[in-house]
């Protein structure tokens, strides 16, 4: 009888112990694949968010505990608008744009909305002392670098630039810009009218979808929001777009020195926590992988050894009929090789499916498969399976047919 036939016959005749070992190996590979997939996708999302965020430095009230960089203006704390003038007049190298914001909660047609006050570029340009300050120039999704040039400054005065450049050239006292999601909810289009604080506002434009918190917001002139909400000349946050090199260098120190009564946060500080979590997840995936594979190896070794003990007579008969020691060894190692390959493939599939399901649900990220993990899973699973079967295989090949028959 051929070796391959013997291996398959053994697997089919004793499926239960083989399935137990297969599941242990599969779970080990699945844990590695799932966690590595989620970690890799999370790292890519962070890189994409950093590119698309626009503002890479935030000036916040000192008492704010920042939980979400993208909702940094939703903490309810305020600081004087005068801080914007101080920063503008300081003319710090690397500062390309200042974007003060004030968020208040209101309602439109009984639907609660977040009204965000913003300062258009025209307000900066109207003040001679501020005119030396450049404006944001790097639309989301471009690769032109983070520093401003005059050729890139919103030449068409398009109000939709708020979705890409995070700035708008002109915004009237009674005009609003509506996020895409909110516009669909309120059924608003450009030119429509809506009521805010008893005042009639005109919709200047509906922003294209950005996939950020801005999709559910209303944007109006900062001073209009201050007047209508009776909050006074205050803001929640100053977003700063700075050249990457300066943001990573002395700019933070200079900002802290200029505004010591505020908290300065950089995107690097915020994502550092998530990067640390990703690294921890990556390390834990290998720990889980190692533990589960060791469990799988112990299970395979136990199953193989028990199989040798149970089949002493069969193995002795095979050897008496001419089966060589290498044939018996190859038969057991062949079973282990098949278990390892099956565990590697099944583990990759199960882990990838888990990542697809858990990634969006737990972290809100879309997960892409990593084909290289299939090779890692196969190599590790087969190596562990074969290594765990070497001693039982040698034990089987070392049986003496005469002693077996005498028993």
UniProtKB/TrEMBL annotation:
<keyword id="KW-0378">Hydrolase</keyword>
<feature type="domain" description="MacB-like periplasmic core">
    <location>
        <begin position="20"/>
        <end position="232"/>
    </location>
</feature>
<keyword id="KW-0067">ATP-binding</keyword>
<feature type="transmembrane region" description="Helical">
    <location>
        <begin position="370"/>
        <end position="391"/>
    </location>
</feature>
<keyword id="KW-0547">Nucleotide-binding</keyword>
<dbReference type="GO" id="GO:0005524">
    <property type="term" value="F:ATP binding"/>
</dbReference>
<comment type="similarity">
    <text>Belongs to the ABC-4 integral membrane protein family.</text>
</comment>
<dbReference type="InterPro" id="IPR003838">
    <property type="entry name" value="ABC3_permease_C"/>
</dbReference>
<dbReference type="GO" id="GO:0005886">
    <property type="term" value="C:plasma membrane"/>
</dbReference>
<keyword id="KW-0812">Transmembrane</keyword>
<dbReference type="InterPro" id="IPR050250">
    <property type="entry name" value="Macrolide_Exporter_MacB"/>
</dbReference>
<feature type="transmembrane region" description="Helical">
    <location>
        <begin position="336"/>
        <end position="358"/>
    </location>
</feature>
<dbReference type="InterPro" id="IPR025857">
    <property type="entry name" value="MacB_PCD"/>
</dbReference>
<feature type="domain" description="ABC3 transporter permease C-terminal">
    <location>
        <begin position="287"/>
        <end position="401"/>
    </location>
</feature>
<dbReference type="Pfam" id="PF12704">
    <property type="entry name" value="MacB_PCD"/>
</dbReference>
<dbReference type="GO" id="GO:0022857">
    <property type="term" value="F:transmembrane transporter activity"/>
</dbReference>
<dbReference type="Pfam" id="PF02687">
    <property type="entry name" value="FtsX"/>
</dbReference>
<keyword id="KW-1133">Transmembrane helix</keyword>
<dbReference type="GO" id="GO:0016787">
    <property type="term" value="F:hydrolase activity"/>
</dbReference>
<keyword id="KW-0472">Membrane</keyword>
<keyword id="KW-1003">Cell membrane</keyword>
<protein>
    <submittedName>
        <fullName>Macrolide export ATP-binding/permease protein MacB</fullName>
        <ecNumber>3.6.3.-</ecNumber>
    </submittedName>
</protein>
<feature type="transmembrane region" description="Helical">
    <location>
        <begin position="286"/>
        <end position="309"/>
    </location>
</feature>
